[in-house]
Amino acid sequence: QYSLIKDVVSSLKRHRMHEQQFTHHPLLVLSNFGLQQIQVKLMASMFQNMFPSINVHRVNLNSIKRCLLISYNTETQLLDFRHYSVKVVPVGMNKAVKKLLQEKFPNMSRLEDISELL
After folding, report:
1. Could you read off the pLDDT of 62-76 as tens digits, one per residue?
2. pTM of the entire structure?
3. Minimal CA–CA distance to 28: which of 50, 9, 10?
4. Taking the CB of the first residue and of the last residue of the chain, which one, N or C, has fewer CB atoms within 10 A?
């Protein structure tokens, strides 16, 4: 079973697709591949070798734009592929500061000083 990209995009309220998402390889997440069966180990090795390994100490989090989740169902012996778009957003700040960090400039015509914004 699969879905066409045009069907996925048409079902989304706000889709985020741009060319920069595909300039770097995705973050690969394998689920339920820890079994001792040789065919499961072979599948896990194949998926890991499809993408370059990521050094978690040196990776720039802003360069990771996609995540590929591959899950193995042991009962049905089927693979589920999920491809996600990842967006890094600041948390724990007020709305005005978030806009400044995301390069969306707020309307400051009502303010007399920048301190009113912060």
Report:
1. 788 889 999 999 899
2. 0.65
3. 50
4. N
CB 72 within 8 A of CB 43: yes
Q: What is the pLDDT of residues 26-58, one digit of tens each?
A: 889 999 998 788 999 999 999 999 988 888 788
Q: What is the spatial distance between Cα 50 and Cα 25, in angstroms, rounded to a whole number? A: 10
DSSP string, the chain: ----HHHHHHH-SS----GGGGSSPPEEEEES-----HHHHHHHHHHHHHS----TTT--GGG--EEEEEEEETTTTEEEEEEEE------SS-HHHHHHHTT-----TT-SSHHHH-
State how far the Cα of 7 lies from the Cα of 15, in Å rounded to an integer: 12
For strands 66-73 and 78-85, give the pairing. antiparallel
Query: In this predicted model, what pLDDT tens digit does every residue of 67-107 receive, in sequence order?
Result: 999 999 989 989 999 988 887 776 777 777 776 666 666 66
Q: Could you state, in order of their start, the residue ranges of all structural domains in the chain? A: 5-89
The amino acid sitting at 60 is N
